Structures are given as C-alpha cells and as structure tokens.
Amino acid sequence: MASDSLPMLRRQFATAWALTRHHLDGLTTAECLWRPAATGPHVRQRADGRWSADWPDHETYDLGPPSIAWSSWHIIFWWSMALDHNFGPGRLARDDVAWPGDADGVHAAIEQLHARWDSALDSVNLDAPSRWPFNDRTMADVIGWATVELAKNAAEIGYARFLYAVRPS
To answer: Whole-prediction pTM value?
Structure first.
C-alpha cells in the first residue's frame, strides 16, 4: 500500500474519534449502567470487585441492545487487543480486559488507548501482516477496521444516551 495512504487513514480515524469524544462528553456512570432494554449485553461486577462483560454467542437482533457500559467496554477490549497483538507481545486475552467501573474510568481508559494508538501509527508499516483481529490481512486493514469499530461503538453510545435522556422517570 502506498505510504501516502496513512494520512488518509488517520483523517478517517480522526473523524471517528471526534464522534466518540462527542458522545463521551458528560457521560455519567448512571448512564453507563442503565439498560435500554431488559436484555442485551451488559457488564457485571464480580465478587473481587472487577467488572466483566457479557460475551454473546450470537449477534442477532433478539439479543437486545447493549448498555453504554458494555459498548464502552467493547471499545476498551478491541483497542487493547489490537494494540497488544499488533504492536506488543500479543498475550492479552478477552478475560484480561475489565470495564473500569465508572464513567471517569471509561474516559481515562479510552483517552489512553487513543494516545497509544496515535503513537503506534507514527511508525506503522501499512503492508505488514496483522495479528489481530485478522491474521490474513495487512495493518492497513486493521486501521480501517478500527475506524469502523470506533464509529459503530460511538454511535451505540450516542443512541443509548438519547434513549436515557428521554426515559420515563
């Protein structure tokens, strides 16, 4: 892939990042833990105090909508995995990634991941093979995929915040 593709990929990612920051601005823990429906992916506090996330075995609509806590955990999960497996030792597993427990922790974790991602892209080889989430594609594919994932999760958070704002009291 031409080296001039990285600026374009970074611009696209910056757009997804702006959307994410917009929907994270002013986010509260109450919003995170609110469930937009009786069913749907959510987080649960374990006996040891850590928060773990549901991992659905399918993605059909009858699963129900995710909570903001789950969608924010999902950002933290896939971004942590992509960084560790493509720019680090590749030892991180899903169960190693906990939800931070509150909105301030969500902000801090996602901001830190953004900073690490931005730094990693400074020296990325777009033609290099990726290791996660694809083992048969290039790093350019991973960057494009991360942009779509971030925009999708940001949209989920935004939509849930709209529903939370007009929920019956």
So the answer is: 0.96
